[in-house]
Amino acid sequence: SQQYENIIVERPADGVGQITLHRPKALNALSTPLFKELNDALQNLDQDPSVRAILLAGSERAFAAGADIKEMKGLTFSKAYSTNFIQLWSTTITNLNKPTIAAVSGYALGGGCELAMMADILYCTTDAKFGQPEIKLGVIPGAGGSQRLTRAIGKSKSMEIILTGKTFSGEDAEKWGLAARTFSNFEELMKGATDTAGVIAGYPMLAVKAAKEVVNQSQELSLSEGVKYERRVFHALFGSKDQKVGMDAFANKVKDVKWTH
Ligand code: CO8
What we know:
This protein is α/β, with parallel strands linked by helices.
């Protein structure tokens, strides 16, 4: 982690890798150098066999205040189109094998909100400030915000948020189903997120990977295709060692299951 300038990588608990966005002077604005480091660290954690869940956090004041506006302001259409600007940013995080939890405190605006929504589970403080304020800059969300927010909270609320650029609270995010849980302050948030990541990291890796995969498929497939997909993956887990370990442990009333992972 020492080679990074914009992020910090830590191991807060057994099996848990944590990446903290750390560009405090710019409220963690998502610059190209930051994203390169983030993608590199995500890939390393995803490939590290000792990591089984990934936590993505910011500071108490800001998860991330968006794409770096100062970097983006001179961008032209031809440059954006020819480099497929932003596409690369979301490819890594949405294709990880291991579950990701975003822990949001303070601002999660624009690309920051989009990044948080790319995680598998979103936790936040009650007073976190989410929003897609791109309209105020003469653009629109560009990293999936209009799609992921709408799938999470529905069309009317999403339209209102994206067309007005106004923020919504962590409390709203939970009420609307965007966030899984809220916490009263930053410390509680980080504790709760680490605990959940630790619980997930304690389960058999193949089952965790399969569970993440089938839930994600629900966002892409029709119900009948999704149910069939789930059943096939369910069948496949009977080829794993940990299915035998887990079910034998239950049948023999073993409390402390030793997973093979
Ligand atoms: N980009 C660059 N610098 C930023 C950004 C940003 N998004 N946000 C804050 N900063 C910088 C400020 O310029 C300031 O720097 P300096 O001290 O050098 O002037 C420093 O961070 C502190 O910010 P403020 O002084 O503004 O702090 P305040 O507490 O007064 O205000 C706000 C905090 C309300 C968060 C305010 O900074 C703000 O409105 N920021 C911009 C929010 C925004 O519009 N975000 C959306 C950006 S567009 C976008 O994200 C497009 C998405 C495309 C996809 C991205 C893929 C992941």
